[in-house]
Amino acid sequence: MNNSKVPKVISSKALSYFAKLAENLNYTKTARMLGITQPALTQQIKKIERNLGTPLFYSVGKQIHLTDAGNILLKSVNEIYASMIDTIDNIQQSTSSTTGTIRLGILSSIENSVLEDFIIQYHNIQPEIIIETVLLNRRQLWDELENNHIDIALMYLPDDSIRNWRPYRTKRIINEDLILLHNNPKLAEQTTVTLKEATERPWVIYPDNYYLTEFLREQFKNNLIDFPEYMGRFASPYLILKFAQAQQLYTALPQSFIMANQPIVHSQQAHFSPDLSFDLSFVYRKEKDHIPRISTFFQEWDHYLDLKSYTDRLQDAVSF
């Protein structure tokens, strides 16, 4: 046998690294997103290039670009991923509506008490279906959706970081406002505040790349106002609230979180003028709602909110 004609194997891990680098065109950013070192990423890319016998990227200054070979490989990798996802979905669509697993990814900054209560009730209705939940940041959610590691994401929209919406569908739950929390006597009588007024004191916010931080940055930028100084960045809304109240700082949290946690919210509350709002939505890949157990999940969710609205259930969480 002529060994030179035997195809060389490229690992799925290396291909996934290549696809992510092709998306970002930045080694440092990609390595950070993948949780590996930059040399480790470079090594994987070099291994593919050696196997193929051609470079996949070229540099112009500090910016990298895909070569023709890189574009061909990226197209093939995307086709392979799409084929695998379609195969998995087709298999799942042939399964029962009363058995199996539903994997839910939840944006970590979301108030999820209503969903938690629903999951408990859903188990009573469909005891043979296993619900798995995981808390993720925005970028992790999209990665898990893209790679079919979760069935449904609970997140905020719109999200301009996603360039290709064609594979996805959305199911809106509520539209909610972002609320400024403060202890400024000057604003005590105001029910609304402008973005300019909201810069008078330092803030505490979510970390960079979290949806609400990026959402706020975009609002300040669009209104030609400098983003406010901040004294802390935390992933937990409870720590954000506690820190802001203890240190007399400004912060902004979704109205749903405030409604569900009224006993611990001692700060003054004000809407922004103009309103800053976004949609809380389920996001999932097309055809997922054709899988019997996921279709049933959505039907039971709709029935759950028909009996009592999402807002009313948030208020119930206070007494609980």
TrEMBL record:
Keywords: DNA-binding, Transcription, Transcription regulation
A molecular-function term among this protein's GO annotations: DNA-binding transcription factor activity
Keyword Acetylation found: no
Ranges of residues in domain HTH lysR-type: 10-67
Leader sequence segment: none
Key word Glycosyltransferase present: no
Origin: domain of life: Bacteria
Pfam families, A to Z: HTH_1 (PF00126), LysR_substrate (PF03466)
Family: Belongs to the LysR transcriptional regulatory family.
Name this protein carries in UniProt: Transcription regulator
